[in-house]
Amino acid sequence: MGKRKNVLLLLSDQQRLDTVSAYGKDCICRTPNIDRLAQEGMKFNNAFCTSAICAPSRASVMTGLYSHKHGVVDNYTDIKEGTPLLGQCMADAGYYCGYAGKWHVSPNRTPKECGFEDNLPFMGYGFPGSGVFPSLKFDIPPKNRPNYYAEYLKEHGYEGVDVSCGFMGNNPALQIQEMFCRHDGPFESTIEYFVAQETNRLIEKAKEDDRPFFIWSNFWGPHSPSIVPEPYYSMYNPADIPEHPSYCEDFHDKPYGYYLTEKMWGLSDYGWKGFQEIAARYFGHCTMIDDCVGLIVEKLKECGLYEDTVIIYSADHGDCLGAHKLIEKGAFTFDEIYRIPLVVKGLGSRDNDSLVLLQELMPSILDLAGVKPPAKVDGQSLLPLMCAEQEDNGRKEIFCEFHYHFYTARQRMVRDLDYQFTFNENERGELYDLKKDPWQLKNVCYDEAYREIKKDYMDRMERYMVETQDPALTWFRRIREFY
Asked: Is 237 exposed, middle or buried (0-12, 13-18, 19+ CB in 10 A)?
């Protein structure tokens, strides 16, 4: 067997597809370094996460399984004992494994316990700016000590760097999380730059190792609060950001929880102008992350490792960012949070339109290493598609799930490129005709004209529930005829 490729997995947090400019000429946000990876390699045009919540999605990457199978159904539960893990499998296959940045895969198991021999763990949600920036209200620091980002700032003379211009909603019960802030230090003092430098440290260490490497690098952004310095803070003019086509949402045919979530964030009174302000900083955050990707690519080239490294860039999920008057993610199955960027450099050079799942990175990366998953996974290796050896994976639809975030609301979603059906366990259902209604504004679930289409997609959903041993199946079967 020839020399095995190195693998660098770069994962951002809560990055919408339309913030990667390789995906559209009309994209306002600019990401030239990621675009270059796509130009040298390929991108998937129909990639989806299977649960649009941080920890469940990241645990799916680690295990190749749906949330209800690996056990991480929210940001607090843990991976079931005995579940094979990507990091451990790569280590067992003889790879040097390193981990950088945000963890949020398991609340209890450290990266080292999951196979990553070199890492600086940030347990829990682990936001490293909490308690470090004196003026920041967002307060979810790493559960473990020390805070390695704080140590980095001190070591490089940036101790005491602060934020200003914090923007948050006006709900008096939620004055605890900014949507964005201005970082008042230089680029080199930002959280994302720290992640890039930690990734480069791992690359330098891997260069001296005889083994191929697997490095998983995780940015905290552009998840709110977007904490960005100049020039990124003012890089995008809020007035240039057009109103999202679904901002006209009135929630009259949506589950009531959607309306409550919109009210919770307290952004209604600002109107679209408020979302323009948020989106401008979010876009700046995305461009800053892109510049960090450029720093990592430079390091690979400097170390002579670029040509032998497969680079995968993706996100754990997206962000509504004003779509349907909503922000972030939650108990809603809109494309803005489920559809994600997925760029691969170092294999083939032909973009692919197949429906693919983020959790399929697990068997794909193992396939690159020349090993099979030690247990059955939910999906298949994307390597034939990445290498352009296969044009279509044959998948007709995708199945996704949601369990808990802010409130319990088990959802299941099945969709293809024509229709999307969402089962809301204790709420009305949703059916969208994506050809006529790409922004998912008109729920036709109870329109007689769509009765047979709804039945078809409910049948498809039931097949996935049976195949994956979904615990929601019992209730779905008992009430589907009345749904």
From this structure: exposed
